[in-house]
Design brief:
Two copies of one chain form a homodimer. Chain A is mainly alpha-helical and 143 residues long. In chain A, 53% of the residues lie in helices and 6% in strands. The longest helix of chain A is centred in the last third of the chain and has 27 residues, at 99-125. Chains A, B: It comes from Aliidiomarina sedimenti.
DNA sequence: TTTAAAGTAACTTTTATTGTTACATCAAAA
DNA sequence: TTTTGATGTAACAATAAAAGTTACTTTAAA
């Protein structure tokens, strides 16, 4: 299974956007994360649907933040990306009438749910403006 | 990304084995989880390497538990399967010199590590004999 | 009218698990 | 001693989801 790096990549882009007061193009974002503008648009479109960014076509178009990073959490972005399953561990479901399969899956599910709940709780506690705020502010001052 | 269902499947098999006092063949195990004997051997070979099961070739051959299920935890089996990454979330690593990428990945990594630690801790607290012991014992009595 | 941008459909590539085929090896049974 | 039933294993195909790519449409500013 290939890893889903959309969350990491899009956070990277959003933090960059904060420091730029013009619309940022998909082309520029693609350079930030070493990929193709179409890949960027695909992911950014999900954030636009959830109202974290806006986009405009045509000359001097591009993407803008729709609200301050302080008002967006990691959990918000995770949700906007579709709330996909976060675990590589899958449960077999070929014999749902088998009590052993049920018991095994119930145990695994309980543990995974607890771990996921913790993870989402932490994501909900981190706003995007906090992502390396210390390092980044000193870095920006150097330029 | 396809899910890794080896843990769920092999636990299912191990609990079944407990109730059978003869060697169990790969063919029989394959039926339990609706797959191919080769797939079973591949996964079971990892458990044999870690000394949780033994196998014998030839007539009346097959697989046997090497120790009581009460002496094996979910974590033991998870380790035996190779301790693979449990998250579908990946971190981008194209710009390791970029402070923003660093900050984003550090935040995500911290949260994922905490969630993984909780999950492995829980896995370590569950021995295989506890997997649905109540349901399974009443089920076995009915036959 | 040209140009610079997003929007989007369709297809290919990648990557790891899973599935399959084929055959070697081994040990018990006939 | 030969047959049979089992594991061991190499090599390859199928699957699935993200990521990458190509090509084209639409839009709006220059």
């Amino acid at each position: 299974m290939r890893k889903d790096s959309r969350l990491s990549r899009v956070l990277h882009i959003l933090v960059h956007m904060q420091a730029i007061d013009r619309p940022v193009t998909s082309e520029q974002m693609a350079e930030m994360i070493s990929t193709n503008p179409v890949v960027v648009r695909r992911t950014m479109a999900l954030l636009r649907t959830a109202n974290y960014v806006t986009s405009t076509k045509g000359h001097h178009g591009g993407w803008k933040l729709a609200k301050p990073l302080a008002n967006i959490t990691l959990l918000d972005i995770h949700h906007a990306l579709g709330d996909g399953s976060i675990f590589t561990i899958g449960l077999s479901d070929e014999h749902t009438q088998c009590v052993i399969e049920q018991a095994v899956n119930e145990a695994l599910n309980d543990v995974m749910n607890e771990a996921e709940a913790l993870m989402l709780k932490r994501f909900g506690q981190i706003t995007l403006d906090k992502l390396g705020a210390d390092k980044i502010s000193s870095y920006l001052k150097e330029r």
